[in-house]
Design goal:
Length: about 300
C-alpha cells in the first residue's frame, strides 16, 4: 500500500513502467497533503522471495514458518505480480555460500530462478506432480505436451513480472522534489530479527536456498544469523523503510534522496509487521501528525 501511495503521488494514474527514464511530475500529490508510509518496504523485502520459494507464512521474524492456508502456497503466490514488485533491490539482495562468502546473484534474471529452482515455475516437485496429473488426465503423449506448455507459460510469465517489477522500482527510485505542501511520515518496527539475506548451500547433493542458518558448520551459525537477520518488523527491515540498502548513516540517500526532503516525522515501535497498523500508540501519533498538518 505504501509503495502504491508513493507511485500515485509521483505519477497519478499514469503507467510509466515502460519508460526508460521515468520522471515524476507529482500530479497525484496535488490531491494529497500527507504521505504516510507504514512499514513500507521502500528497498524491498527478502521475505517476498522466501514466500515465493516456500509459500506464505503467518509467522514473522525468525520464528518457525507456519502456512495453514493451502490457497497461499507457492503456486498461488507465484501468480501474484505485486509480490515481485516488493523483492529486494538488486543492491539490497544478499546471498552467501556455506562459508558465508558473498554469492553474486541477479535476482531479476529468469535464468537465476531456473538455476536455483525458485518459485512454482522451476520447482521440480511441483513439475513432477503436475506431469503425473497431466498424463493421467490426457494420456502419455498429450499429457507430457500439456505439462511442457504449462512450464513454458510460467517461465514467460515470470520473465514479464520480473521486468515489470524492475520498472516499478525504477519509477519509485526516480528522484524529484514533490510539492512543498506534501509531508512525508515514516512508521516502522525495529525490534524483530528480520530476514535480509539467504544462504545458497548444498544439501544432500541439491542446491538449496535457506533463510535460516542451517546446513552450515556450527561455528559459523551465529555469524550467519547476524548476516541473514537485521532489525526490522519481522518482514520489512529498518533500512528498507528508509529506502536504504545497509547503511543507516546516509543522510542524503534512500527515500530522502528520491523525494528531495527528509520525513516530517519518523517513529519506530516494537510490534511485528502485522501488528504495527493496529498499535494504539502508533495510531495516536499518526492522528496527531495528520490533525497537526491541516493548514
Amino acid at each position: 500500500g505504501g509503495l502504491i501511495a508513493r507511485y500515485f503521488a509521483m505519477y497519478g494514474d499514469a503507467d510509466v513502467l515502460g519508460d526508460r527514464q521515468p520522471r515524476p511530475d507529482w500530479r497525484g500529490a496535488q490531491s494529497l497533503r500527507s504521505l504516510v508510509l507504514f512499514a513500507t518496504p521502500n528497498a524491498g523485502s527478502m521475505d517476498a522471495l522466501r514466500s515465493l520459494i516456500y509459500g506464505y507464512s503467518i509467522t514473522e521474524a525468525n520464528k518457525p514458518r507456519i502456512n495453514p492456508f493451502k490457497g497461499l502456497g507457492r503456486v498461488t503466490i507465484f501468480t501474484t505480480p505485486s509480490v515481485y514488485q516488493i523483492l529486494p533491490r538488486r543492491e539490497s539482495a544478499r546471498f552467501y555460500d556455506a562459508k558465508l562468502e558473498p554469492v553474486k546473484i541477479d535476482l531479476y534474471a529468469v535464468e537465476t530462478w531456473e538455476r536455483y529452482h525458485w518459485s512454482a515455475a522451476f520447482d521440480p516437485e511441483i513439475a513432477s506432480r503436475e506431469l503425473k496429473f497431466s498424463i493421467k488426465k490426457f494420456g502419455e503423449s498429450e499429457g507430457r505436451s500439456a505439462a511442457a506448455k504449462t512450464l513454458a507459460l510460467r517461465s514467460a510469465y515470470l520473465r514479464a513480472v520480473l521486468k515489470r517489477a524492475v520498472g516499478f522500482q525504477e519509477a519509485l527510485d526516480a528522484a524529484g522534489a514533490p510539492p512543498e505542501t506534501l509531508r512525508l511520515h515514516l512508521v516502522g518496527g525495529d525490534c524483530e530479527p528480520t530476514v535480509a539475506g539467504a544462504l545458497i548451500v548444498d544439501v544432500k547433493g541439491e542446491t538449496k536456498t535457506l533463510f535460516y542458518p542451517r546446513h552450515i558448520p556450527r561455528e559459523l551459525r551465529k555469524e550467519a544469523f547476524n548476516k541473514l537477520f537485521i532489525p526490522g518488523d519481522g518482514r520489512v527491515t529498518r533500512q528498507s523503510l528508509f529506502g536504504l540498502t545497509f547503511d543507516l548513516e546516509q543522510p542524503d540517500a534512500g527515500i530522502m534522496q528520491m523525494m528531495k526532503q527528509a520525513p516530517a516525522h519518523t517513529i519506530f515501535g516494537c510490534d511485528t509487521h502485522g501488528d504495527l497498523p493496529i498499535n494504539p500508540t502508533m495510531l495516536d501519533n499518526l492522528l496527531t501528525w495528520l490533525l497537526g498538518n491541516r493548514h
